[in-house]
Design a protein that fits this description.
By secondary structure, the protein is an all-alpha fold. It has two domains: 45 residues, no CATH class; 226 residues, MetI-like fold. The protein is built from twelve helices and two strands. A two-stranded antiparallel sheet has the order 1-2.
Length: 288
């Protein structure tokens, strides 16, 4: 029964990951200046990886990793502020309109992520609708160039692009909450606010963490958003932009492959923390 899933995992994860390792610890063709991967682990050379690690922790790439982490955290905070109320309303309050609201939440999946980013390029231009609305409402000058390497533009694009992936798993977690616990809290005299703080929010933390992991992992490797919304400005460059540059636009594919490995290790640590936290909460719930 597990064979199809295992074959899928090997073909689309294990083999590509091994290819990245072979490139990172391989050589560069002296004539074509392209990657010359070493498929035999015995012949792997770790010199390039040590150089990239030195740049990540002490050199120019450190700022790129820090910026990527800050963008991901800011975007996650924005998704929580926007997505949690939406998921809570659809799961706990909406009755007759739940089906229509769920359809609207799924609708962005029908449109390519790149097409949605390109649409925002037109909206964020100097003469676009965003500046027009700001000018009409006197909330801004109405002449700001949002596409000129502004970090709020990248964060806004990440929030817009990934918030559907945040809302749907959180909605599923909130929809499965035992309503009897909420009723018991109200029967014991707790107000709606205290019921949410002491009952609903703690019970929704596993779903909130799952939704956070689902969006943070791809955010850290995202490069389309910065490329399309700021023209790939160095001031908003993320790790994904560096990986794309070294693998496709330079003669240093080893550096790009090494960055992929470092990013994978960082994300695996986050995933391990998530799995350990969920397992601990499940054990505590079983004992309770």
């Amino acid at each position: 029964m597990a064979a199809p899933g295992t074959l899928w995992l090997v073909a689309l994860f294990v083999v590509p990951s091994y290819a990245i390792l072979a490139v990172a610890f391989g050589d560069i063709d002296p004539i074509l200046r392209t990657a010359a991967p070493h498929w035999n682990p015995v012949s792997w050379d770790f010199t390039a990886m040590r150089g990239v690690l030195d740049r990540v922790f002490f050199g120019d790439l450190r700022h790129v990793f820090v910026r990527t982490g800050l963008f991901a955290l800011a975007s996650l905070a924005g998704c929580c502020l926007i997505g949690y109320p939406v998921a809570y309303y659809v799961a706990r309050s909406a009755r007759r309109s739940r089906g229509a609201l769920l359809a609207l939440l799924v609708l962005p999946f029908w449109i390519s992520y790149l097409m949605r980013m390109l649409a925002w390029v037109n909206l964020l231009q100097t003469d676009g609708y965003v500046n027009r609305v700001l000018g009409w409402t006197h909330l801004g000058s109405g002449s700001r160039n949002w596409l000129d390497g502004d970090w709020p533009t990248v964060v806004f694009g990440l929030i817009y692009g990934y918030i559907p992936f945040f809302i749907l798993p959180l909605y599923a977690a909130l929809e499965r909450l035992d309503g009897r616990l909420i009723e018991a809290s109200r029967d014991l005299g707790a107000s709606k606010i205290w019921t949410f703080i002491r009952v609903t929010l703690p019970l929704s933390i596993p779903g909130l963490m799952a939704a956070s992991v689902i969006i943070v992992l791809p955010m850290c490797g995202d490069y389309y958003t910065n490329t399309y919304l700021t023209g790939g400005s160095p001031r908003t460059e993320m790790v994904g932009n560096q990986i794309e540059f070294f693998l496709r636009g330079s003669s240093q594919p080893q550096t790009g492959a090494a960055l992929v490995i470092i990013l994978m290790i960082f994300l695996m640590v986050l995933m391990a923390y998530y799995l350990v936290t969920i397992a601990r909460s499940q054990r505590e719930g079983a004992r309770a």
